[in-house]
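User: I'm designing a mutation panel for Phage portal protein, HK97 family and want to avoid disrupting the core. Could you give me a predicted structure to guide residue selection? Please restate the sequence first so the numbering is unambiguous.

Assistant: Good idea. Sequence first, for numbering, then the predicted C-alpha cells:
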Amino acid sequence: MWPFSKRAITQGDGKVFLRDDSSWATASIGDGVTVEKAIGLPAVWAAVNFIAGTIAGLPLHIYERTGEGRKRVDSPLATMLNERANPGATSFDWRKYSFERVLTSGRAFTLIDRNAAGRVSGLYPLDPDMVEVVRERGRVYYRHWQNGVKVTYQAAEILDIPFMLKPDGIGHWGPVSANRNAIGLAIASEQYVGRFFQGGGVPPFIVTGNFQSGAALGRAADDLTNAVHKAAREGRPALTLPNGLEISSVGTDMEKAQLVEVQRFQVEQVARIYSLPPTFLQDLTHGTFSNTEQQDLHFAKHTLKRWVEQFEQQLNLKLFRPGGRQFAEFSMDGLLRGDVKTRMEAHAHAIQNGVYSPAYAAKLENAPYHAEGDRLMIQGATVPIATVGDAE
C-alpha cells in the first residue's frame, strides 16, 4: 500500500561486506590497492572531487506537468532536494558524499525516511561498507548494520546509485577495485619517487674493490652508504673514497625510465577511468584556449549527463507516485553556457526566429524583466528576390 510498508528490525550482526579483504585484490606490481591508497593519488583525488562537487552544486528542483508544459513546485520535498537533505546535512553535503562513495568504492545508498503520514521527512546517506544487497523471492532488500543491529529495508526505501552493476544485478564493480592495476602502477611510481628523494636523491649503488674479509666488506658498505647519504643531505658535491674502491649506480635512472612520462600517462589513465578530459585533472599537455569550451561541453554531455540521469530516475522512481505529475530534475543550464559572444548570438537567433521572447532570453542571462519584451517576434526582412523591386 502506498507509500511503503514499514521496515522491521531483526537480529544483531556485525558483518562487513564492501570492505572485506577478499573484495580487494592485490595489484600485479605488489601493492594492495584500496580506496584510501587510491585517493592519495592527486589525479584520483582531483577526479572524484571534481565530479562529486559539480553534481552537488547543480540546482535540483521539482516540477509539475501542466497543460502548457511544466511549472516549478515549491514544497518541503523540493527544499529537501535542493537545500537541506535532513536536519544535519545540506543537500550539497548529501550529494557530494554520495558521489564520493560511487566514484571510489562504487556504490552509494540513501535512506528515505518517512513520517507517519508517508511523507518524506529526511534523506540520510548510509555507509556503503555496512550495507548488504540481497534478492529474496524476486525482491531486492538492503540490510544495514549500525551499532551491531541489522535493519532490513525494502528497495523503495533506499536510493541506490551503483557505478556499474555485475551481471547478477545485485553486486557491483567499483572504479578503484576494477582498475587496481592501473592505479597500482601510479601508486608504485609515487612511492618510488618518494623513496628516492627521501634518501637524498641517491640511487642504489655497488662498491667494488679489494676487501680482506666479508666483515670488512660489510663495514665498508655501511660506511660508504652513510657517507653518501650524509653528503647528499649536506649538499656536498664531492665524496672521497679510499684507494682501490669504486662506486657505480645500479638500475635505471629516472630519465631513462621515463618516470615523468609514466606519471603523466597515469594521469591520462585516471582520466579514462572517470571519462574526464585530462585538462580537468590539471594536465594541460594537450589543452589549448580554443578547445577548452568544447571540453566543457564534452564533460557536461558525456560525463555528467549519465550520472544526472541515473540520479534523477532513482529520485523519480522512489519519491513520487507512479504516473504522477511531479518529477525531479537537475538544471545543467549553467554548465552548458558558452562565452558571452556565443550566448548573445544564440539568443539573437532564437529571438529573430520566434523561439525565445526577448524577456525569456533576458531571464536566462539574469537580466531585468521588461513586460514589453514578453512577446514572440520574427524577423520580417527576408522576402523573395522577385519582390524586391516591387517593395521599392
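For picking mutation sites, this is relevant: The chain has three domains: 1-200+264-334, 204-250, 338-392. The CA atoms of residues 29 and 185 lie 7 Å apart.
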